């Protein structure tokens, strides 16, 4: 008697959509990496034109430039973002007894910092150089650490709010803050003349990819631990 062939169950639509998004982000990240590393002339020309225009504006609008410096150096600084995640991780562990999720959050943010430094060292892209700079920055340019860190931190925190059943009003407010932060930090880095536009775009795309992969890892290892009202705290 022949044993009937058992087909693997189809993936749910949400899983297929997440996989499709992750593949798209991975392809875009790889494409940006290759084009920047190869110094593809059309891309370099676009970066240069945008940088020259925004630098001229930064010189002319000193008040706005100073405000952007405060935002990028204090509010949206990568260490500010990482400390926010550390506070959330402590809250998850101490108040919700969700130590696995707390460790996952901290590890993802730490690996993001390591990844961006490896990419910077590997590509070795020079930052814009100006005779009259309005700000300065260290290390190589590609990708933007500010943009990548903000994307990862905001993406993970938004996902955790949804997972832990935050009120719709809270989630909407958090989404608005996240959009302003991620978009704003990218704008400030280009405006202040310390990054090329493609550095920021790469930071956004690669950061979104990290979020997708991190969420997939969490779902893989905690597929049946989604918190719900009246249920025990999840890890």
Q: Could you describe the 3D structure shown?
A:
By secondary structure, this protein is mainly alpha-helical. It has 8 helices and no strands. Helix 4 packs antiparallel against helix 5, helix 4 packs parallel to helix 6 and helix 7 packs antiparallel against helix 8. The longest helix is centred in the N-terminal third of the chain and has 25 residues. 31% of the residues are buried. The N terminus and C terminus are likely disordered.
Fill in the keyword field for this structure.
235 residues; disordered N terminus; single chain; mainly alpha; disordered C terminus; 8 helices
What is shown here, in short?
Helix content is 73%, strand content 0%. It is built from 8 helices and no strands. The chain has helices at residues 13-37, 41-60, 62-75, 78-96, 99-123, 145-163, 168-191, 197-221.
Helix content: over 70%
Termini separation: 46 Å
Radius of gyration computed on alpha carbons: 20 Å
Please tally the β strands and state the result: 0
Which word captures the global form? globular
**Into which percentage range does the β-strand content fall?**
under 5%
Series of secondary-structure elements, N-terminal to C-terminal: HHHHHHHH
Quaternary organization: single chain
């Amino acid at each position: 008697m022949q044993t009937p062939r058992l087909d693997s169950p189809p993936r749910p639509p949400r899983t297929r959509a997440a996989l499709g998004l992750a593949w798209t982000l991975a392809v875009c990240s790889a494409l940006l990496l290759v084009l920047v590393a190869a110094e593809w002339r059309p891309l370099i020309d676009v970066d240069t034109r945008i940088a020259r225009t925004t630098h001229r504006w930064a010189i002319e609008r000193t008040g706005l430039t100073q405000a952007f410096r405060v935002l990028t150096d204090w509010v949206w600084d990568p260490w500010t973002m990482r400390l926010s995640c550390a506070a959330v991780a402590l809250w998850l562990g101490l108040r919700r007894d969700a130590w696995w999720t707390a460790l996952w959050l901290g590890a993802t943010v730490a690996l993001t910092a390591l990844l961006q430094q490896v990419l910077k060292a590997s590509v070795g892209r020079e930052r814009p150089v100006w005779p009259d700079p309005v700000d300065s920055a260290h290390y190589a340019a590609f990708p933007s650490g500010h943009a990548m860190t903000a994307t990862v931190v905001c993406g993970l925190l938004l996902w955790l709010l949804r997972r832990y059943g935050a009120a719709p009003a809270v989630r909407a407010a958090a989404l608005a803050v996240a959009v302003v932060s991620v978009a704003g930090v990218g704008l400030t880095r280009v405006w202040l003349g310390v990054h090329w536009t493609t550095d920021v775009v790469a930071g956004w795309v690669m950061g979104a990819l990290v979020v997708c992969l991190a969420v997939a890892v969490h779902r893989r290892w905690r597929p049946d631990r989604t918190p719900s009202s009246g249920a025990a705290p999840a890890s």
